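Lab notebook, bench 4. The sequencing result for the construct came back, and we need a structural model before the next group meeting so we can plan mutations. Quick request posted to the team channel:

Model the 3D structure of this chain.
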Amino acid sequence: MTRTRSRSFTRLGQPALVLLLLLLLIAVPFWLVLSTSGKPLDEALNPNLDPPSTWQLAENYSEAATKGEIWLALLGSVTIVVPAVLIVLILGAMAAWVFARRSGRMAAALYAVGISGVLIPPAAVTLVVVLRQLGLAGTSAGLIGVYSGMYLSLVIFFITGFVRTVPIELEEAARVDGAGPVKVFFRIILPLLSPVMATSAILVTLFAWNDVFYAFFVLGGGNVSTIPLNLFKVANTALYTNAWNLIFAYVVLASVPLVALFAVAQRRIISGVTSGAVK
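Done. Here's the predicted structure in token form:
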């Protein structure tokens, strides 16, 4: 009887303990950011977990959005991330289809090279030198090219495993009807890849949207800016020095698009990862 109770407690208590720890890890930083973003400036000079004496969320958020030029940064992020995601998805799906349908040492070697970017990060200094030679340094096109090259390997890795689960008889039947490679890909293969394509799109969007390292090197002090890069800039200016209420208000506003995207698409992320990478 004692052993049964002990096993029952272990079975129920351990998951509850893990959930409690996760809740603390998430809730404490979230409350720190939210409460500080609603405090007056004098209370926000030293961030802590105390609630504000007077909530002024509307004033802080409005000032952060206006003086921080968050709308321009949002536009910059959208105009960079969306084309990069589209390029990566189309090229990655095409390459994955070829790798999945080819066998032999040459195909295996090319596939290894194609997914090598998952493990080998690009050199930032080399990228900047190359972009300057091409006249793309400090431009949106340059950063779109960098993101496309960085995340292409990840997309190839995910989609290749998924394509291998698609029956080749579908392609053979289309070829018998006179369809060429392009028509087979866009009419047969691409529609079947929608689950893993959605997952890849979401993951690449998350990575590119939150990137500040490569955006800093590529865009530098140009006119184009992204949300994370703009946050880095405004947090280091005299305007936001020690103004943690405005900085945290900016963080909350900048996080809303990705939080909404993840909340809506979290099931697709899980299903696409399991069907593409595991299979």
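Residues 20 and 26 are 10 Å apart (CA to CA).
Will bring this to the meeting.
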